[in-house]
Amino acid sequence: xxxxxxxxxxxxxxxxxxxxxxxxxxxxxxxxxxxxxxxxxxxxxxxxxxxxxxxxxxxxxxxxxxxxxxxxxxxxxxxxxxxxxxxxxxxxxxxxxxxxxxxxxxxxxxxxxxxxxxxxxxxxxxxxxxxxxxxxxxxxxxxxxxxxxxxxxxxxxxxxxxxxxxxxxxxxxxxxxxxxxxxxxxxxxxx
Length: 191
Prior knowledge:
Elements: H1 2-9, E1 13-16, E2 20-23, E3 33-35, H2 39-44, E4 50-58, E5 71-72, E6 76-85, E7 88-98, H3 99-105, H4 115-122, E8 129-138, H5 141-146, E9 154-163, E10 168-178, E11 182-184
Parallel strand pairs: 3-11, 5-10
Antiparallel strand pairs: 1-2, 4-6, 6-7, 7-10, 8-9, 9-10
């Protein structure tokens, strides 16, 4: 019953009371998100996703930045969103955006899937420095509930930090993705 519920949530089957269960469509690729390994790929990627806003507000404080770049600003806006594809949750993005930049650019522009791209497009001089770290981890209870996983299931974390031209840390994020729906691909040699 649980397996059928997952297939129904993915839009692959449809249950009709008194008639049975029917296949609705062929499954698409199981990979919902490819972590961009380069700046150019990050800027050119337009993810085919929906998202739910879980939290949106002013951050009391910035957590410890993932990368030792830039100067921490006095205030940040905070967004926490759950990413979905075909109504299936596959990631949670927790993002901190420097408050003055957020207000100047406008809340409505951050309704796009990749806030760092919005910052790069609208900041004077764009993003000056950006770093990304990808790690394997396991889902804690809160993450597991949000992503329909068992606690301890494998997840991939993607931490990103970015500064503006003045060296201010304007962006800090942590994406947590289901290990079964995400991949990292890098071309090592292309002769």
